[in-house]
């Protein structure tokens, strides 16, 4: 909003005339009186909340519609300052003056006076969060409040029915800053542009932003580096402090991997599987809360690269499908559900809402105020998510929204389940086309007999799972292996066991043994057999 919105204010103010012969007063707990008298007050409080937010550089102002312990026929409204505190004293007088302006003309004049005296920059974006209690007059009064916010062009977030302390908490809530590793790529432009909108509630700190430096793209940074090496990008070592969340995009910003350091500065990765678990759980929770249990099917689609712990965790709760590597396969399978959550372990994924699910969301009649809040949150999620394709920026917002709603830090999110130690290895072979697979790429059908020999090795590892497939994007064969901590029936030294125990997320042995076998089978020159595979 760049100039004073006279015509909007006049139009909306005329819809909410002040009753004559009433004098309002912003008391210790805001305005409070018979609900039937409050329509104009709520409209004007909407305008005042927007002015207060603009005065504070767009910080979020809370508005609570309640008359607390008073009789049900009363209602009221109070403003909450950005840190969750009561409105500053001097503004209580402004609120009283504004509410008592007799005509629309008087009201506009008081608004102008406030802008002048408080030196308010009208061009700033106002952010306001609103909630109400269960009083029957609440919805009508919130509608009047929203008219005031609309007239001022404020960005309003309606939290529905909430307790007063929750509204104070929400108004005071600001997500801790998020470090964003842009992989020295195009994601930086997007993160920068998005920061302008979200920094007031979610401060973004972009790193690895050298988009013009030759050789920098995806070099020792970005989602693929973090996922494959299971390490913090070296460039972030002196940036990230314990407990802080960070995420990495890949070079074209369609993959997203999160990570954090614990209080011993140990690195923990939250990959596409963890994102899928967080998102699928949250959506299921919202659907249940909205009274939509059984109305539609929420499913998860993964590939063979999904960590076994994630598959176990998710399939105990929701239908889970495993498909061949490649986004097109995941996307297609996700379309088979009412709400399909799909993520590759490497952080590429999204959520699809089928047309019928969307129409159920649109037409569903919640039977309680709480159901109505769950429903509107679910509808908001369907808007937030980029359903055309996995999108690091949109997925990042999705994750942040869920963490904020649940009050989770990286640690709490991480503890949904524990990853099995795993390793992905590339094997350069003479001809990768001799490798053919079945069962969503989890078993080899060619070269003949190789799968049998792999099984003989895998069987020796507790919780062992491994598979081999030719890459579709590089001239290599990929080997993935995971297992629980201790190798079984294996002659390896105690030192190796200890190493595994101290670095629990690195489990190279099974992967390397299989890689060695794959290398031998593909007719590789034994003198070039990589040392680690021996
Ligand atoms: P290939 O090279 O077929 O493994 C890789 C990724 C896929 C997918 C595509 C497209 C792994 C193991 N594989 O495919 O998941 O993202 O690239 O980018 O991450
Ligand atoms: Zn990409």
From TrEMBL:
One example of the protein's molecular function in GO is: magnesium ion binding
Please tell me which top-level EC class this enzyme sits in. isomerase
- Catalysed conversion reaction: N-acetyl-alpha-D-glucosamine 1-phosphate = N-acetyl-D-glucosamine 6-phosphate
Q: Which residues bind substrate?
A: 344-346, 469-473, 478
**Which positions are catalytic residues?**
68 (phosphoserine intermediate)
Q: Name one GO biological process term.
A: carbohydrate metabolic process
Cofactor section: Mg(2+)
Checking InterPro entries in the record gives: A-D-PHexomutase_a/b/a-I, A-D-PHexomutase_a/b/a-I/II/III, A-D-PHexomutase_C, A-D-PHexomutase_C_sf, A-D-PHexomutase_CS, Alpha-D-phosphohexomutase_SF, AMG1_II, AMG1_III
The residues that cross the membrane are none
Keywords of this entry: Isomerase, Magnesium, Metal-binding, Phosphoprotein
Q: Where, if anywhere, are coiled coils annotated?
A: none
Keyword flag Isomerase: yes
Q: Which residues form the Phosphoacetylglucosamine mutase AMG1 domain?
A: 176-256, 271-408
Functional pathway: Nucleotide-sugar biosynthesis; UDP-N-acetyl-alpha-D-glucosamine biosynthesis; N-acetyl-alpha-D-glucosamine 1-phosphate from alpha-D-glucosamine 6-phosphate (route I): step 2/2
UniProt binding sites for Mg(2+): 68, 250, 252, 254
Q: Where is the Alpha-D-phosphohexomutase C-terminal domain?
A: 446-484
Q: What does this protein do?
A: Catalyzes the conversion of GlcNAc-6-P into GlcNAc-1-P during the synthesis of uridine diphosphate/UDP-GlcNAc, which is a biosynthetic precursor of chitin and also supplies the amino sugars for N-linked oligosaccharides of glycoproteins.
What protein family does this chain belong to? Answer: Belongs to the phosphohexose mutase family.
Q: What is this protein called?
A: Phosphoacetylglucosamine mutase
> Which species does the entry assign this protein to?
Clathrus columnatus
């Amino acid at each position: 909003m760049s100039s004073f919105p006279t015509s909007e204010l006049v139009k909306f103010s005329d819809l909410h005339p002040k009753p004559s012969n009433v004098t309002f007063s912003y008391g210790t707990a805001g305005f409070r009186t018979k609900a039937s008298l409050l329509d104009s007050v709520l409209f004007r409080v909407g305008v005042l909340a927007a002015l207060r937010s603009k005065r504070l550089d767009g910080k979020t102002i809370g508005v609570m519609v309640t008359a607390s312990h008073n009789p049900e026929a009363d209602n009221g409204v109070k403003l909450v300052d950005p840190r969750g505190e009561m409105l500053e004293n001097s503004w209580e007088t402004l609120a009283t003056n504004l509410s008592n302006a007799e005509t629309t003309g008087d009201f506009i004049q008081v608004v102008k006076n406030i802008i002048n005296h408080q030196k308010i920059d009208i061009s700033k974006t106002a952010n306001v969060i609103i909630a109400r209690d269960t009083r029957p007059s609440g919805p009508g009064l919130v509608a009047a409040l929203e008219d005031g916010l609309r007239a001022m062009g404020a960005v309003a977030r309606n939290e529905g029915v909430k307790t007063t302390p929750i509204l104070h908490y929400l108004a005071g809530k600001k997500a801790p800053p998020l470090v964003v590793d842009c992989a020295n790529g195009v994601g930086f432009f997007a993160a920068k542009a998005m920061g302008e909108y979200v920094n007031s509630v979610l401060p973004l700190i972009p790193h690895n932003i050298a988009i013009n430096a030759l050789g920098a793209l995806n070099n020792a940074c970005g989602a693929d580096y973090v996922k494959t090496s299971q390490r913090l990008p070296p460039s972030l070592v002196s940036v990230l402090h314990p407990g802080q969340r960070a995420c990495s995009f890949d070079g074209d910003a369609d993959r997203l991997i999160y990570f954090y350091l614990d209080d011993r500065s140990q690195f923990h990765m939250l990959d596409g599987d963890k994102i899928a678990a967080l998102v699928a759980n949250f959506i299921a929770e919202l659907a249940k809360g909205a009274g939509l249990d059984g109305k539609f099917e929420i499913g998860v689609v993964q590939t063979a690269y999904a960590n076994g712990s994630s598959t176990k965790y998710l399939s105990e709760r929701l239908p889970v499908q495993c498909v061949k590597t490649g986004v097109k396969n995941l996307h297609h399978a996700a379309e088979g559900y009412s709400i399909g959550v799909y993520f590759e372990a490497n952080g590429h994924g999204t959520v699809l809402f089928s047309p019928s699910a969307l129409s159920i969301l649109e037409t569903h009649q919640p039977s309680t105020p709480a159901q109505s809040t769950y429903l509107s949150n679910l509808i908001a999620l369907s808007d937030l998510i980029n359903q055309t394709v996995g999108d690091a920026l949109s997925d990042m917002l999705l994750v942040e929204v869920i963490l904020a709603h649940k009050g989770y830090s990286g640690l709490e999110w991480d503890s949904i389940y524990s990853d099995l130690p795993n390793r992905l290895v590339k094997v350069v072979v003479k001809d990768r086309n001799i490798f053919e697979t079945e069962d969503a790429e989890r078993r080899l059908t060619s070269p003949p007999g190789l799968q049998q020999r792999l099984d003989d090795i895998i069987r020796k590892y507790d919780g062992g799972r491994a598979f081999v497939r030719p890459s579709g994007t590089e001239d290599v064969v990929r080997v993935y292996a995971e297992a629980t901590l201790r190798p079984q029936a294996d002659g390896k030294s105690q030192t190796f066991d200890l190493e595994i125990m101290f670095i629990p997320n690195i489990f190279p042995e099974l992967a390397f043994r299989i890689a060695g076998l794959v290398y031998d089978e593909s007719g590789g020159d034994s003198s070039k057999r990589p040392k680690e595979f021996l």
